[in-house]
Each structure stands twice: as structure tokens, then as C-alpha cells.
Amino acid sequence: MRGAVIKWLAGGAALGVVALVALWWSCRETHPEMERPSPAAPPVFNPASQTHHRLSPVEARSGLADLLPSAVANLKAAETADQKGATLSHLRQALTGVSTNEASALIRRFLDTRADAPTGRGFKIGGQGILAESPTLRAFLLDYLGQVDPAAAALYARTILSSADSPDEWAVALRNLARGDASPEAKALLEAKTAELLRNEAWQQDPSVGYLEAFDTAVHLGGTNLLPALSDLVRKKDNPAVAHAAFLTLDRLTINQPAEMLAALAQHPEWMTGREETRANYFARADVSDAEQRRLVEAYLLDATRSPAELRAFAGVFPNANYLVSHNLLTEVATPDGTSLARRDQAALQAVNQWLADPRFEKVKPALLKMQARLAEFTRQAGPPN
Length: 386
Fold this sequence. Notes:
57% of the residues lie in helices and 5% in strands. By secondary structure, the chain is mainly alpha-helical. The strands form two sheets. The chain has a three-stranded mixed β-sheet. Strand 3 (124-125) and strand 4 form a beta hairpin. Helix 12 crosses helix 13. The longest helix is centred in the last third of the chain and has 19 residues, at 338-356. The radius of gyration is 25 Å and the shape is elongated.
């Protein structure tokens, strides 16, 4: 089918398909390649009955010192997911009952204690990069801090990133640093810490969802500095979750910066050793109506080292219009409309026809004929250009 939009999310220890988004622009074949509660706890919460009401500022302050220690105790004592959820709901309401400065200071003091408790939930990203679910109390609080006090969250992110304790906390801390500090120094730190995360072999062994979702920071940073690390990961055939997360990251970087990314991949063919058909998917992202991207594709096709299998993979998807859509910590995925896709198909067909008439491309003629037939059908179905 033409222009498939597929939603991928990390799940468990692997990054798997969660939903197929039903957005189709025209017919096209697809090629798919994250102790008990203290008596000093705020008196309005009863974990047994799971009842609570919105705290007034006075009520919130009356139990403020015990609020987070009580949350730890309640989460550890809870026997059901509903009880854990009630604890988190109560905590959020209590934090909103005090000023931003008070809530921010309270959270940072608590994080300094390193106390924590599991929430019984996963690492799930909702809209605007905010966590819809947090696996631990600390991750919940780091996420909340990033929402209410971005500057303080960015500053505290440096503390989290100073030691490799939790990939889930690093994921939120990287987001908080990126959003709360736009200075060149912060960007340099963000890139260095993202590279450190990508190289952390201990976290790769049994990757958490947060670890895989943190790859989005590389997309946010852009550029090619992290390509060596990502290409190492995409070649990890014995670790499909990490390899797939790296594949998606490289794919989104190519969508955002096609000429820069394809030039780097062409200059370093060793980056895709063993993943040549994956490289074909990236080069198939090129929009040949752009002169530089067309030049890169022509050099790619004329490379004498290109294998028949890689050429077949390229021919089967060019121009690649499969888009993987998900909620991400820092970035969004823009998908083209039907008119844009049709124009790309028309430009691609024109280029293929010209290549077929060019003697230099004689050795890749079978692949070109396959592309010509498919693109001719796409353009026929799309109708005359608007």
C-alpha cells in the first residue's frame, strides 16, 4: 500500500509493533524493515478504600514533609495496581496544591535521598513527551519536575547524568536537559551523555523501554556525530531490540536530514557492513527532485560494490514512503500528505526513465525496470498532477 504509516513503540525488553495506524493515501506495497504508611501522611488519603480529594494549599502544606516518604511506603505496601495508582494520583494532587517553587524544592530534596519505589507501571510516553506511565517513583518525580520547573529540572539532570544508575532516569533527564537549557554548553553535554548512553553495554544486555526511548535524543540533536555509535548498534543482530531502536533512529535522522545523512553513509560504507539492505531503505528515502539527493542516489546505484540483494531492496521500496509514528520524548514525526507523495513518485519515475536511457546504468537495469513498473502504477492511480 502507498504511504503506510506504522506506529512503533518500545515494549518490554524489545521494541515491538503496538498499532498499525490506519492512514493510507493511495495503494502501495510496504516494506517494513519502544513498611506501612506513616501516621504523619496527609490524612485525606486512604489506600485501603482508594478514596481521595483535591488537597487545599493548607492541607498540602500540613503533610508536606512526609508527603514523598509516605508515597514510598504506600507504593511498597500496595497490593494492587489500583492502590498504586491511587497513591500516584494523590501525590500529583498534593504537589499541585503548593507553589511551583515548593514542589520543585521538595522533589529535588527527595531525589537527593535516592529513596525509590516501583509503581507497577511501564515506561510509556504520552503527548508532548510527558510520561503517561512511570515505572518508578523517581521517574515519576523527574517527569513532573520537568513539567513544572524546566530550569530546575535541567539543572538536576546533570546530577542524574553524573552516574550511570538507571537508564529510565537518564531518558527523562536527557529530555529535561534538552528542554530546560538551550545553551551551547548544555547541548554539548547532551550529545556527550547521549553517546555515553548508546555505548552503555550493561544497559544494552536487557534494555528497558526507557533506554530504547532515550534514542530519540539523537534525533533531537541531529547531525552525524552519533552515527558511528548508532551504526554499531544497528549491526547487533544478537540484540534485536537495540538494533531496531537504532534502525528507527537512523531512519528518522535520514528523513530529517536526507542529504547530510546519505552523504555520511556513502562516505563510510563500513558502518552498514552486514546491514546492506537496511542501508538501501535509507537511500530510498531520497527525494530525487533535489539535485544533491539525486546525485547521491546515482552514485549509490553506480557503485560497483553494490550487491544484487541490496539493489533489490532499494528497488522494492524507492521512494520510501513508510513512516513510523509514535509519541517520543523530544521529537515529533511529520508525515507527508497524498499530494506530496504523488509528486515524489512522479519525480522518481522521471529519474528512473532517464537512468534507463543512460548507458552508465546498464548493470542496474533489472532493478530500474522493477522501479519503473511500480512507479508507473502509483502515478496512474494518483491521477494527473495537481
